[in-house]
Amino acid sequence: MSFKTLAAALAAVAGLGLISPGAQAAYPDKPVTVVVPQAPGGTNDIVARIVSEKLAQELGQPFVVQNKPGAGGNIGTAQVAREAADGYTVLFTISSAQAINPAIYKDPGFDPVKDFAPVAAVGSVPNVLCVHPSFPAQSLKEFIALVKANPDKYQYASAGNGTLNHLLGAMLDEKGGLKLQHIPYRGVAPGMTDVLGGQVPIIFASLPSSIANIQSGKLRALGVSTRQRNPALPDVPAIGEQIPGYAGELWIAMYVPKNTPQAAVDALYQATQKALASDDIKKKFAELGVETLNDNPAQLAQRLDEDLKLWADIVKSSGAQIN
Length: 323
Known about the structure:
The chain folds into 2 domains: 32-125 and 249-318, Bordetella uptake gene, domain 1 (D-Maltodextrin-Binding Protein, domain 2), CATH 3.40.190.150; 127-241, Periplasmic binding protein-like II (D-Maltodextrin-Binding Protein, domain 2, 3-Layer(aba) Sandwich). Helix content is 43%, strand content 18%. The chain has 11 helices and 11 strands. Strand 6 (155-158), helix 6 (164-176) and strand 7 (181-184) form a beta-alpha-beta unit. Helix 2 packs across helix 9. The relative contact order is 0.18. Mean pLDDT is 91; it is low at 1-23.
C-alpha cells in the first residue's frame, strides 16, 4: 500500500469517528503508585499488597506499594492529597487514619472529604476485646457485670492516646456505663507484651494480631467490636449483643485525589470488585480474619461520613487530643 493510499485510509477512518487525533490512551497506561500510610507488615499493608497484585493483573500495569508511615497515617495521607489527580496515585488506608485522625489531630494535614474521591472499601477487620487468662470474667456478660461493680479498678492497654484500641475502650465506657482505666503505650506491641505477661489485664487487639494468642490460650477473647460475629471466632459474641449501639470496626479502603477523572475511578472500582471476588483473595482474607467489603464509591462516602461523626463524639467524650 502506498503512502498516499494509507493516508487516505486513515483520514477516512478518522472521518467516521473511529479514531481521534486527541484520543487518550485507556487507563492505566503506566505504573500506578499505591501509598500505604502505615508501616510495612501491618494489616493494611498486607491487604494492600494482596489487592494491588490482583489489580496489576486485572489492569495490565504494575501497582507499586509504597509505605509512607508517620503521625498516625497523616504523613502519607497528606502526601496523596497533594498528588496530581490523574489516577496514578492511590491511597490505601484504614478508618483510624481517615475517620479518627481528623478529630484527634488539630491539623492532620488533609481533609478526608474535600481532598479525596472514594473508590472502594475492600475489607473490615474486627478488634477483639481480650483479657489475660487469669482475669476473673469468663464471658462478655460477666466482664460487663464485673467492671460495672468495680469502677476504675481494671486497666486496659492501647497503642496510644487517640488510637482505635483506645477509643474502643472509651466507647465501652460511654455506651456501656463502664469505668476502665486507660494505659497508653507507644504502639500496640509493648501493650500486648504487658497483657500477655499479666501486668495489664485487658486490651483491644485486631483479630489478625491476636488470633494466634487466642487459639493458644494466651489470651481469652470476650467480644468483637464489629456489628456481627466474625467467622474466625464464631463463638465470640459481638459486643453490641450486650451493649446496644456498640460497634466500631477498622475498615480498609481505597481513595484517589479529588477531581481524579471518573474513568479512572470506575476502572479502579471495577477491577477491585473482580479482585475481591477471586478465590485466592477470599482465602487469604479468611486466613487474616478480614471480612470482604464491597462498598462502591457512594457507599464508601456514606461509611466515612458516619464514622467521622461517630468517632468525633467518642474523641470528645474521651478528651483525647494530639497537637
